[in-house]
Known about the structure:
- The structure is a homodimer.
- Helix content of chain A is 23%, strand content 25%.
- Chain A is of the alpha/beta class.
- In chain A, the strands form 8 sheets. In chain A, strands 16-17-15-14-18-10-19-29-13-30 form a 10-stranded mixed sheet, sandwiched between helices. Chain A has a 5-stranded mixed sheet with strand order 2-9-8-4-5.
- In chain A, strand 16, helix 10 and strand 17 form a beta-alpha-beta unit.
- The longest helix of chain A is centred in the C-terminal third of the chain and has 25 residues.
- The radius of gyration of chain A is 26 Å and the shape is globular.
- The two termini of chain A are 23 Å apart.
- At the A-B interface, helix 1, helix 4, strand 11, strand 12 and strand 13 of A face helix 1, helix 4, strand 11, strand 12 and strand 13 of B.
Amino acid sequence: MRTLSIVHAIAAFVSCTAAQTFQRLGGCPDLGCVFPPDQADFLAGQYFDIRLEVHSPINGSEARVGEPDPNFTFTITKKRGKPIAATKFFKVDEPKLERWDFSWYEDRFAEDADTPSIVNVTSKIYRRVALKEPGEYEATLNYYGSQKTVANWLVRDLPTKRRAKNVILFIGDGMTTNMITAARLIAHKSINGKYMTKMALDKFPVLGHQMTHSMDSFITDSANSATALYSGHKTTVNALNVYVDSSEDPFDDPKFETIAEIFRRHHPHAGIGIVSTAFLADATPAALTSHTSDRGEYDHVISTYYEGLTNYTWTEWNGPDVLLGAGAENFLKSEDAKRDYYDLFAQNDYSVAWNKTALQNAPNDQKLLGVFQTSNLATWLDRNVYQANLLNKTNYPDGSGRDADDLPGLKEMTLKAIDVLHERHSDDGWFIMSEAASVDKQMHTLDYDRALGELLELDDTVRATIEKLKHLGELEDTLVIVTADHGHGFDVTGSVDTKYLEAQDDDRHKRSAVGYYESSGLSQYTTGGPNSLRYSEGVHFPTRWDPRYTLHSGVVAFPDHHENYQVHKDGPRTPALAAQGDKNNYYASYKDAVSGILINGTLPVDAAQGVHSLTDVPVFAQGPCQELFGGVYSSIDIFFNIAECLGLSEGK
Amino acid sequence: MRTLSIVHAIAAFVSCTAAQTFQRLGGCPDLGCVFPPDQADFLAGQYFDIRLEVHSPINGSEARVGEPDPNFTFTITKKRGKPIAATKFFKVDEPKLERWDFSWYEDRFAEDADTPSIVNVTSKIYRRVALKEPGEYEATLNYYGSQKTVANWLVRDLPTKRRAKNVILFIGDGMTTNMITAARLIAHKSINGKYMTKMALDKFPVLGHQMTHSMDSFITDSANSATALYSGHKTTVNALNVYVDSSEDPFDDPKFETIAEIFRRHHPHAGIGIVSTAFLADATPAALTSHTSDRGEYDHVISTYYEGLTNYTWTEWNGPDVLLGAGAENFLKSEDAKRDYYDLFAQNDYSVAWNKTALQNAPNDQKLLGVFQTSNLATWLDRNVYQANLLNKTNYPDGSGRDADDLPGLKEMTLKAIDVLHERHSDDGWFIMSEAASVDKQMHTLDYDRALGELLELDDTVRATIEKLKHLGELEDTLVIVTADHGHGFDVTGSVDTKYLEAQDDDRHKRSAVGYYESSGLSQYTTGGPNSLRYSEGVHFPTRWDPRYTLHSGVVAFPDHHENYQVHKDGPRTPALAAQGDKNNYYASYKDAVSGILINGTLPVDAAQGVHSLTDVPVFAQGPCQELFGGVYSSIDIFFNIAECLGLSEGK
Lengths: 652, 652
């Protein structure tokens, strides 16, 4: 039966090959759409909504005559059972019929010619249902008389015994194995090809790879991928914990519950911590509590931290215990945000910290909001090496226009989060997500030095976390996971003699500065010198960032840019600039690397930055349930493994 | 004591920072050189040579007055013991003193100006010694009165009980996690972001990462990296199972024993199989038996398959049981090779096969040499999809000038190797190395389609191998490992609408054909169609190689080239051509991708191809000892784990 339904699904999938890249609606195999879609996986008892749509395209390659079916029916069939009307199966009222239309382009030619295809839609949505019994289900939409769209759903049959008291999930946003290799090379000394010290990541007992693909595209963004990691559901680019329907409203899409919501529902006294070096409305932290098809709805994101969902009945949710990061602009009153969230959080018994000193002095027995600057947190490299770049930013988190010059890093934030959660939840345990966000952000702008600095800060944070957990007596009860949400196509192929490159007059001669194979030589980032940087015992970063021989780094796809393979001492890179302000027409910024060579882009000319890549990303695990994380698997298995380890499955 | 000696070594290492990329002699920390160098690891009982050198640079930044010391001394100190003269320690005669000089360039400026630095050398070499007792040793060279070079050596303390009867080591040359991800995407169907089938690699229970760095450069070549995998010793680019000394002779360098040699020495009736899709004199197969500082000494390589070493006393070695691959030119009499190796192998009771039919008909109870064409084996894509590319190659392995048109692939060769070794060595067990060589070779020429085809053939070979071992009742006694020797900086960032790209007039408009994030869409390589390719149950390759929407693939460093993101149906790519035959001046080949965009290179203009990259590469393991292969470690640990699993350590 399972096999048959798979064959059915493949046949349906093949039928829409004409629109593989430009899609009428992702996850919708024919004119009937069921969300959650075919092949969806569920935790037993996880709340979700069901969206049904019937499409009637009025023009384009799929054009048909007539209105979309208003009389479609929907049944659920448990394996070896009979189809049961969804209203009866879930004991809910029949939802009201909705109607709308939407348009899309079938391909780039249609886009250029501005000839959209228009689709009329009938739809219903079932809110807040759950499947409590593990097993296979068929969700069947019947429409246009004899047509059917079948979604095969699997409620995973997981052990229900809780094995971990605490879980800390580190996310190196955009981090790949290739970047870890490069970070190790610049921060750890080696002799004759052998490292004298190890990264914290290198010491993990279990290694896995996870596949990051989206539901309807093989490249994901961070909203979509964080959703998969936290909820077990793959969705569409830009979506946070909803499947994206074809309606315009970014808040009416079918939702599903996240690990934070489920953990708190099962254990009202368990602790939740959210830590990020991004602005806190950004996708990776947002995906723990937000539900919207548009990750750009920042006020929605902050409001869900504060009060959960208000537009529909959903899981009881009273906010994280600890919320630390940047992005003060979304907490202050503004055009977008009618409320002062600092006030609201303070009224809800949070202590509010605006700088590192206040963070470290905040009481451990109180909930804690820490917002340390506007925008993203300054990078490790700027906070620790090129500190002049922190000046004249007018980015103090109170909106006063001062500079934020007393900034914590990922390590200080994460260790404080553990202190608070340990103090407040030593009985019921806690879940922390800690994100090194700017590995991704700096890779986007081809600022490899800053990206690797962020990765090394993550590694140092992991090291310090393990030490702290040991000190607190919690290490053996804590599952520690380090992974990424997607990659960037980064690697290193050798070294560059920057002195030689500078001395040459033209690009073809400058390229002779590149050494590969035996001429790559050894890393000069770890050698000493009069001005070499020094760190505490066990802490590993480059002792210098500007050796004569640097890394020959690159990504596989890029905008037009200049490249001189040197650290940008004056602040983060801007590799491409819009010609006369035309955001559809980026050219290399000459100023970005004056002595560099010109590299013509391979991305569309409207791309100012690099983009995410396909590669599976690594997973490092230690602690209770570590054995679940070995080998190769889907990103959603991270969610199911954490849920299993916390005993959150309601099955049997 | 260990800590102290590490500090000493780091200090020494730092002293030569001026020559990190251009080095006087790799692995030589100061004017005294000891090979095996500092931090070398040994299997207890493994044979090796010791080379000592004392340098006296007569000009350049290290210039000194006087001859190199002819009276240097050399001692071995076991931990907590006293220094013992090497002659006494190893019970060998004092070697005779050698003298030579050599020159090198201190950097690219010196190279441009042709101002070499000259070095006079005194040297000795100790042949075929071994350390049988596990533990730490200091090898100390005393010279110029008070100067010392200390090499810290570790003989690993490993269990000696044999746990695996057989070992098969698959090497995807140049294969990375990124490539595995892309290969899966084009060969395995998915629905809503979830694969309906798995790669054989995805099913392995244990995953690791290995670091591939060379002894004296962070980018390795395949000779050096295969040496590390088979012997536990990291050396220099282009070297096969020797440390590279400064003498000119490519055959006098200090050797060390390989896994094939050690296994045969311990178990004279154990079987050895060598399988590769490369020419058999190529580095990855060669590194099982060859000992030379120059991987280009092809006649040496073939002679070591046939008779082992003849220039010095070394391990008894009477050749592999099975040797299958390509490169007939090195088996035929020629200017380089004075002997007809087909005759010699036949005289040594090998059956000799020149085509797939003969391979499959060869008796399983006889030793087997199979050489199927000149040069490298045609790629899977040309053998199976674009077969017209096999014509007019005059590459039949007998040198007759016919076409080789009855070619086996990696799978047929590997399964036959198992048949022969199982028949001949069912009591004593066997070791096979099977290499998918052209993952690397096709990545070098930016022919991503062909490279991924090779990777998928490797995966299919692994699948079929596991099935065969199960069928033979040998699976539980066989350690199966799949890994790589180094990476290429490959990844995929989206899709390309090739129809749209073709329809645009200029490069900047063509780039709009690239779709990323949600516009990457779904893989069209697995969808059906009237001419779609079909495979047997369980075999997964693309059903079409030329969909309208292809992968937006790239590498991080490249020569000048044109790119249209389409499969090359007329044969493997040649992305760059030498201008007027000048091998120091490569430009994009317009013909290679007529409709494509021009991408200016980031490698020196004398590079016709892409190059190897830094990234750690994956290791997949199953069978006895699989638990040794999890986590992150050095490439040399692959050797030590295999040796441990075969019970080859003589310690205690």
